[in-house]
Amino acid sequence: MVESLEDRVIPEEIREDAEARELALQAWEDIRRAANEAELEAIRVAYLGKKGKVTEILQRLKSLPAQERPQAGKVGNSLKKLLEEWLGEKRTSLERVLTEKTLREELFDISLPGRYLPRGRRHLISRTMEEIEDVFLGLGYEIVEGPEAELDYYNFQALNFPEDHPSKSMQDTFFIHREGIPLGEVILRTHTSPVQVRVMESRKPPLFVISPGKCYRSDVPDATHSPMFHQVEGFAVDQGITFGDLKGTLEYFARAIFGEERQVRFRPHFFPFTEPSAEVDVSCFICEGEGCRICKYTGWLEILGSGMIDPQVFSYVGYDPERYSGFAFGMGVERIAMLKHGIPDLRFNFENDLRFLTQF
Ligand code: PHE
Fold first, then answer.
1. What radius of gyration, in Å, describes the C-alpha atoms of the chain?
2. Which of the residues 189, 246, 295, 301 could staple to 327 if both were Cys, CB 3.0 to 4.6 A apart?
């Protein structure tokens, strides 16, 4: 800000009006003295605020005789403009002084190391589950979840398990004891397949669904067993769905998760709710088929179970097996994650040891 008034051009109309001239000189003096933003603001209010001196002049215009108004208006507006200009300049100069002062006084060493902030991340199992979901979402599948406490009917019966199937025994399945509920009616689901039945029962084909979630089996924890684990189920039902569709879909999936170069093979298997059934293997990506510890020297890694939905299951949900066909598959998420990342023990997934969790 230029500090001397001599250097400033004060418009003629102000110079020739005694009151305006006086006000301008006074304001100049006040603004010049302002030592900080707050003082400057107080000055602005005193002149240009609602009850400020310049505002008052402008308001007075209304009561002037008509022939005096134009000239008085010109003076008032000119004064207002001038003060706004001076205030603006002073504000800029105060800011600059402040910045310079801060730069001088608050010198700090930008090369000092920062403070360590621990950063959270999604659990490997959640991330693997999402990776699997993403592949199928990309194929147009939708996600539907089902309950973990499940009826025997959905978990076993409607999936065509015989009444005396060994997996229905106390050794394999957790039963829920509740007064008023017959023992054996409610269990913790042992797989995600019951969601197939729940969805088919309440909707009509075409259905392209995946269902991720927790499952429970009465196993003692060891390197390959856990009483709680995760599965992703998937199934497709429509007219004209074939085993070829199953193969194409699962080959695509296997390569999306384990790499484009993977070989995929379908091995005959048995599940009560699919016929024919197949387990799917991918060529071992650790040894490229040579044989290693991970693939137990077979060159292949089993990744999921699958098959064409058994007509018997369709009969439970009221679908005409002559009209509709479908395939289903289910995989263990921990298993997929362990294969993918070479994790030797299932229990690492559940122990919350940061040395393990932060590797992924
Ligand atoms: N539910 C089967 C299991 O837990 C997997 C599976 C799902 C197999 C769907 C075939 C079709 O092992």
1. 40
2. 246
